[in-house]
Amino acid sequence: MPLGLILGLGRAFRRKRTSSLDILSSKRAPRNYYKGKNCIPTGFHTRKGGYVVMQEKLPNYVVPDLTDFKLKPYVSQCPREVKTTKGTDAAK
């Protein structure tokens, strides 16, 4: 009888992983817990229920000047037919 109890305890300790206990998900947390989607807030809530957007927290995209750039930003969905050369026919 004591041997079965010791084996059962050993089995229970082997099943538990310490790394899985550190992960807190919405299923393991209290009912009102919201984990979120790892988004950075762009402002803060006021006492009266409003929201103030802070300009320094908004994303700032730096786009280079493309006035004399030869390539176009658009890629056509209907490409023109291209004549094949002998090198591509031999590869088949």
UniProtKB/TrEMBL annotation:
Q: Which UniProt keywords apply?
A: Mitochondrion, Ribonucleoprotein, Ribosomal protein, Transit peptide
Q: Name one GO cellular component term.
A: mitochondrial large ribosomal subunit
Q: Which GO terms describe its biological process?
A: translation
Q: Name one Pfam family in it.
A: MRP-L27
Molecular-function annotations in GO: structural constituent of ribosome
Q: Where in the cell is it found?
A: Mitochondrion
State where it is primarily located. Answer: mitochondrion
Name the family the entry cites: Belongs to the mitochondrion-specific ribosomal protein mL41 family.
Protein name as catalogued: 39S ribosomal protein L41-A, mitochondrial-like
